[in-house]
Amino acid sequence: MESPSIVVLTGAGISAESGIKTFRAGDGLWENHPIDKVATPEGFRKDPSLVHQFYNERRAQILDPAITPNAAHKALAQLESDYPGPVWVVTQNIDNLHERAGSKNLIHMHGEILKIRCKKTEQVFACHESISTESNCSCCQRSGTLRPHIVWFGEMPFQMDEIYHHLGKAHLFISIGTSGNVYPAAGFVEHARECGARCIEVNPNPTYNPNFEDFRQGVATVEVPKLVNELINNVPKRNTPEIP
Ligand code: NAD
């Protein structure tokens, strides 16, 4: 029998209690900036300095030693190590809190704040410093070719084939701290459900998506460790000899 697999989709809400603000909060703003100015290719073309500055601030924030993985990130890493089947975390977050908590099967579908990309060669580099339109790219040796390694509105998220492959095989789909406003991630629950997964949502505010058959209302640091504990203690037993 195939081991039962789990796909977890996380959004900005899982990092809220680590001190990173969520996205929309109902007002279309990300850290007080309209999203079309800082999270679209058009916004970058129009004002690259503003966009670099915005992501420089996000990068500096995640490098601040005060920002650390919380109990929810840690519980998901524990789920991956203690659950007998494969556990995949697909995150919309650009922060690095899942990997710092210990998650290994991790897909950053919207990119990573600690990476930068050359527009000419598509090479991706680790980046822990501030970038400007004057910064020189180490592959093409030009200035003005670097952009944040972030998926903006209107761009295709990363690793979509792999994500749909895991969703298609998942026994359980868990959505944590995401408003369900940003597609294609918002459509994962429907796909997982159609492919046979049980679907659970964790959020202080319900999204009322009917594909979730189980809703855990509350903050991630409380609800995720509880759920992980349940899952680890209720795994279908494997290799049990059949009683004649
Ligand atoms: P969103 O901001 O649209 O929604 C956040 C959701 O989290 C809401 O449903 C809210 O009810 C819930 N929430 C708030 N506090 C919570 C808590 N303590 N525990 C659990 N849930 C909580 O976020 P989204 O759906 O992820 O879409 C936002 C987009 O913004 C993503 O694509 C992401 O790339 C980007 N973003 C990322 C970060 C980050 O990397 N940490 C932060 C802000 C925005």
Structural commentary:
It is a single chain. This protein has 244 residues and is α/β, with parallel strands linked by helices. The protein has helices at 12-16, 35-38, 41-46, 48-63, 71-82, 97-101, 160-169, 188-194, 220-233; strands at residues 6-10, 29-30, 33-34, 87-91, 106-108, 111-118, 124-126, 146-150, 172-176, 198-203, 214-217. The strands form 3 sheets. A 6-stranded parallel β-sheet has the order 5-4-1-9-10-11, with helices on both faces. It has a 3-stranded antiparallel β-sheet with strand order 7-6-8, with helices on one face. Helices cover 32% and strands 20% of the residues. A hairpin with a 2-residue loop joins strand 2 and strand 3. It is elongated, with a radius of gyration of 19 Å. Residues 237-244 have low confidence and may be disordered. Helix 5 runs parallel beside helix 9 (220-233). It is built from 9 helices and 11 strands. Nicotinamide-adenine-dinucleotide binds next to helix 1.
Secondary structure topology:
Blueprint: E1 6-10, H1 12-16, E2 29-30, E3 33-34, H2 35-38, H3 41-46, H4 48-63, H5 71-82, E4 87-91, H6 97-101, E5 106-108, E6 111-118, E7 124-126, E8 146-150, H7 160-169, E9 172-176, H8 188-194, E10 198-203, E11 214-217, H9 220-233
Parallel strand pairs: 1-4, 1-9, 4-5, 9-10, 10-11
Antiparallel strand pairs: 2-3, 6-7, 6-8
Nicotinamide-adenine-dinucleotide is lined by residues 11-17, 20, 22-24, 30, 92-95, 110, 177-179, 181-182, 203-205, 219-220.
